[in-house]
Amino acid sequence: MAYRNAPLGAITEVPMRSALMTTAAALPPEPDLSVLPRYVDRQRGAEFVTRYFFPISHRTMERWPLTGKVVNGRLVFLTADLFAMAQEKMDAAPTIKGGPATANRAA
């Protein structure tokens, strides 16, 4: 795989990293721990939380009190623990009414 000196248009192979990325079509519609990976890093964890719960970045997860393991230099977490923390955050979030913004939006 020498990409450096290959002529334009000659590279037809998909790089390995993009082949390993999970596509939205391949994920189940509801979180199913039997199908999802057992351990995830922050980047993949943020993708799963965004898909199943709410938008989040991998940098936000740095502040979550999750316990993980360092494997090959990467910190990984149990997917079940990650989903439990996301569900706790969702349950603790206040409910507000929709509509035009006013001074008193709390329900």
Estimate the mean pLDDT confidence.
Answer: 80
Biggest β-sheet, characterized? Answer: 3 strands, antiparallel
Instruction: Give the strand content.
Output: 5-15%
How many beta strands in the DSSP annotation? 3
What are the secondary-structure elements, in order, as H or E?
Answer: HEHEEH
| General shape | elongated
Classify the helix fraction into a percent range: 25-40%
Brief overview:
By secondary structure, the chain is α+β, with helices and mostly antiparallel strands. It has helices at residues 16-20, 42-52, 79-92; strands at residues 39-41, 68-71, 74-78.
Question: What does this protein look like?
Answer:
The chain is 28% helix and 11% strand. The chain contains 3 helices and 3 strands. It is elongated and about 50 Å long. The relative contact order is 0.13.
List the keywords.
alpha+beta; elongated; 107 residues; single chain
Set out the fold topology:
Blueprint: H1 16-20, E1 39-41, H2 42-52, E2 68-71, E3 74-78, H3 79-92
Antiparallel strand pairs: 1-3, 2-3
